[in-house]
Design a protein that fits this description.
The complex is a heterodimer.
Chain A lengths: L22 H9 L4 H25 L9 H10 L12 H12 L15 H18 L9 H16 L1 E2 L1 H23 L2 H30 L3 E2 L9 H27 L4 H15 L3 H15 L8 H27 L2 H9 L4 H31 L11 H9 L9 H29 L5
Chain B lengths: L1 H14 L8 H8 L2 E6 L7 E2 L5 E2 L1 H14 L5 E6 L4 H6 L5 E2 L7 H5 L3 E3 L4 E3 L1 E6 L13 E6 L3 H12 L4 E6 L2 H9 L5 E5 H9 L7 E3 L7 E3 L2 E3 L3 H20 L6 H6 L5 H7 L5 H5 L5 H9 L2 H8 L29
Parallel strand pairs in B: 1-4, 1-5, 9-10, 9-11
Antiparallel strand pairs in B: 2-3, 6-14, 7-13, 8-11, 8-12
Helix pairs in contact in B: 3-9, 3-13, 9-13
The chains are: A mainly alpha, B alpha/beta.
Chain lengths: ~450, ~350
């Protein structure tokens, strides 16, 4: 009588889980209605979402894309039975002005004097993506493309402002000359003297000789594209231009400042600390006012110091000071052993920074760096306060058109959407980069 | 690239700073362009269209001056200025003249060292209230909430008015006109106060303009006009008499329609002849060509035409001439004679 088995000897076939625990229903039960309290919160949230959408969607879906003025919008809305203060959006303003919000007054061929030049900022923006590719996606593009990236800082402003091609080439030559002087002087004396003489040589070239050089070459071989005045810049083109240049210049400048702040050389350290603390202690808007009004008074009368250039310098300096502190945070997070390890390998200061310290410090600082970038990009709208026509400045000009006076939310909504696209993609990229580099210690 | 150009220019400019004191009129002629400061956008007074082409009541003054000096009404660089940057832009020479609905006050004239060359619009601070409030005079506004732009003379005028009438109010500070419109329509304040022209323009954008009324009290004097720097009287004269030419043209019946005919040959009216350069040498005295005033008037019409086209009763803004009628019709617009 021992063959009575109380224990099952064969496996039962797997059964599908109950319908209430899988799929959509299961997910909803597990995540939204897992208890009376959560159910209550879910219902309350759903109601809030519904209330918001019920208010916004009928407003946003409004057949006014073709309208030519606010009055026309109201007529169209009245025909479809909507009246009142928030009856519906007036999208005609975006139809008419979106190009202006993108490019400002950049020549669009309407004045009959210059051709439609808006392809230039567009091309510059596309090339920006190409130039960033070797930096952002280093493992997916040929490494030779880094040469294009190196030339891009000279190409980018040239595409915007136009003029003779010899200008950017002679600016580029300054770096080449500086490099050669550095190399030569380094051989005959120390690297410090080499560096100083390299910088001096490049400055001498830029300040005195390069102007004659580019003028001379331009008179021999005039190659160039039609110049465009800074005054015509505006809209998102201006925001992106200021943002890109400030971001690109502030990172190297910030690294130098962060290293300077940690330096043992008293003067270097004092200068860096003084600069960082001064810039961080002043609001950006103050610096912009200095750029737009005070400099005008200090400079000799009649000096034409391009307003956008002044703003670029100020925004770059501002971003660099913040960047320096972010990177200093990265440097401080590195264990002392890394520095000592570099020393024990016999690396000199720059080799140690380049091969051991910076790769790790920058990796740690990625979230901080990117959020500084995003902050700088958004801060560019402050230039509307000094009369530059960035998207927010233009919104005022658009409302000053008697046809569109009284329109607020449509324009601001469009601007917000555009900024969101730019900032969100930056933030997503930073998350991708963090995952790729595995910044966490594990 | 820009940097090198700039730094080179800066060095040269630094060396030549002493020599750069030529008259503005010569600078403008040499440049071939007039740099004219305008607002970044104010309905009826200055606004860019979809192609970036500026138009408006103040813009017309810029165009007239450009036409008088350079013979070309399109030879203007419009420099958008904000309330905060306008005076430094003018003082530093970034712009040659400012036509930006700026109130002529003692301190701006004397202390900031500008010359107001005339008045092209007599404005004043008014009040707008919803009709349902049942108020017919600003003196009945005791205890009301008032939307007001901060940091402007309107703020001070308002305080003065309420104190003088011994009534109280609660200010709701706002930054821009657009914000004010939203706040006022949302009922955040009972009263909106700013320049009467601005109130009219704002009311015109409402869904139901008839539901709102402008109160009869005007509590301040706001004479708006173009201005130039102190110390360059030749240039000041050019701008002043260009404005006067537009005003005189309306008084004498010279319009953009009949100016071609009138300036072709000397007519019966000697003042028209002097104005249009068919007689005398007024243009030469100003350092301009004989047909300067003809060009200025042809640019966008005489004063009355400019007014009607940009802010007059046929436009959405719909301002009546009121104080801004010719002196012959009971207004304050008056030009010294062309003699």
């Amino acid at each position: 009588m021992s063959n009575i088995a109380f224990v099952r000897t064969e496996m039962l076939p797997e059964q599908a889980p109950p319908a209430s625990a899988v799929g959509l229903i299961g997910w909803v039960r597990a995540n939204l209605f897992s208890g009376w309290f959560n159910t209550l919160i879910t219902l309350a949230t759903l109601y809030v979402i519904y209330a918001i959408l019920a208010a916004i969607l009928p407003w946003a879906f409004s057949p006014t894309v073709g309208a030519g003025s606010l009055a026309e919008c109201r007529e169209i809305l009245a025909e479809s039975g909507k009246t009142g203060h928030f009856a519906g959006a007036c999208w005609g303003v975006i139809t008419e002005r979106w190009q202006q919000l993108m490019f400002g007054f950049y020549p669009n061929g309407s004045d009959g004097v210059s051709a439609d030049l808006r392809w230039r900022p567009v091309l510059a923006f596309v090339l920006l993506a190409v130039a960033l590719a070797p930096v952002l996606f280093a493992d997916k593009v040929p490494s030779k493309m880094i040469w294009f990236t190196a030339a891009f800082p000279f190409l980018y402003p040239w595409l915007h402002w136009g003029g003779s091609i010899w200008g950017p080439i002679s600016a580029l030559l300054g770096f080449v000359i500086g490099w050669f002087v550095f190399k030569t002087a380094e051989k005959v004396s120390s690297s410090l003297i080499g560096m100083i003489s390299g910088v001096v040589a490049a400055l001498v070239w830029w300040l005195t000789l390069s102007g004659f050089f580019s003028n001379a070459l331009n008179s021999i071989l005039p190659v160039g594209i039609e110049p465009v005045q800074s005054r015509l810049f505006g809209g998102f083109m201006l925001s992106v231009l200021i943002g890109v240049i400030a971001i690109a210049c502030s990172l190297p400048l910030g690294i130098v400042l962060a290293l300077g702040r940690q330096s043992d050389l008293l003067i270097v350290k004092a200068i860096c600390v003084g600069f960082i603390e001064f810039i961080r202690g002043v609001p950006l808007i103050t610096l912009l006012f200095v750029a737009s009004t005070l400099l005008n008074i200090f400079l000799p009368p009649g000096t034409q110091f391009d307003i956008i250039l002044r703003v670029l310098i100020m925004v770059t300096l501002f971003a660099a000071a913040y960047m320096a502190e972010v990177i200093r945070g990265g440097l401080a997070a590195l264990p002392k052993g890394q520095y000592e390890g570099a020393d024990s390998l016999g690396l000199d200061y720059w080799q140690a920074q380049r091969l051991i310290i910076m790769p790790q410090a920058l990796k740690i600082s990625i979230p901080g760096i990117v959020s500084t970038f995003i902050g700088v990009f958004k801060d560019t709208v402050l230039v509307s306060v000094i009369g530059l026509l960035d998207p927010l400045g233009l919104s005022n000009g658009i409302r000053a058109d008697a046809n569109w006076n009284g329109i607020v939310w449509e324009i601001y909504g469009f601007i917000a959407l555009m900024f969101f696209v730019f900032c969100f993609s930056m933030s997503r990229y930073s998350m991708y980069l963090e995952r790729k580099l595995q910044t966490g210690h594990r | 690239m820009k940097k090198t150009v700039f730094l080179g220019a800066l060095t040269v400019a630094g060396l030549a700073a002493g020599a750069a004191a030529a008259g503005t009129i010569d600078d403008v002629k040499a440049r071939g362009k007039l740099n004219c400061g305008v607002t970044t956008g104010l309905v009826g007074f200055a606004a860019p269209d979809a192609n970036g082409e500026w138009s408006g009541f103040d813009v017309a003054v810029c165009r007239a001056v450009a036409a008088a000096v350079l013979g070309d009404a399109t030879a203007v660089e419009f420099v958008p200025t904000t309330g905060k940057t306008r005076f430094t832009a003018l003082a530093s020479g970034e712009i040659d003249m400012l036509a930006r609905n700026t109130t002529w006050t003692f301190s701006r004239d004397v202390d900031l060292k500008f010359t107001f060359v005339g008045v092209n619009y007599y404005d004043g601070q008014g009040f707008m209230v919803p009709k349902e409030l049942g108020v017919s005079s600003a003196k009945e506004l005791d205890g009301s909430t008032v939307c007001i732009q901060t940091g402007t003379t309107t703020e001070l005028n308002l305080a003065d008015f309420f104190r003088a009438n011994n009534i109280s109010y609660e200010p709701v500070p706002i930054e821009t006109n657009a914000e004010a419109q939203q706040q006022y329509l949302a009922g955040a304040c009972d009263v909106y106060t700013t320049d009467a022209s601005g109130l009219a323009a704002t009311r015109a954008t409402f869904e139901a303009p008839a539901d709102h009324i402008l109160l009869p009290e005007i509590v301040s004097k706001e004479p708006l006009g173009p201005l130039v720097r102190h110390g360059d009287d030749e240039w000041g004269d050019v701008v002043r008499w260009t404005l006067n030419a537009l005003i005189t043209a309306e008084e004498l019946g010279v319009t953009s329609a009949n100016i071609g005919e009138m300036s072709a040959a000397a007519g019966n009216n000697p003042e028209i002849n002097r104005l249009l350069g068919t007689e005398g040498n007024l243009g030469e005295m100003l350092g301009l060509s004989a047909d300067w005033a003809k060009n200025a008037i042809a640019a966008s019409g005489n004063y009355g035409e400019v007014f009607e086209k940009n802010i007059g009763e046929a436009t959405p803004i719909g301002l009546a001439r009121g104080l801004n009628a010719q002196w012959t019709e009971g207004g304050l617009i008056y030009s010294p004679p062309f003699r």
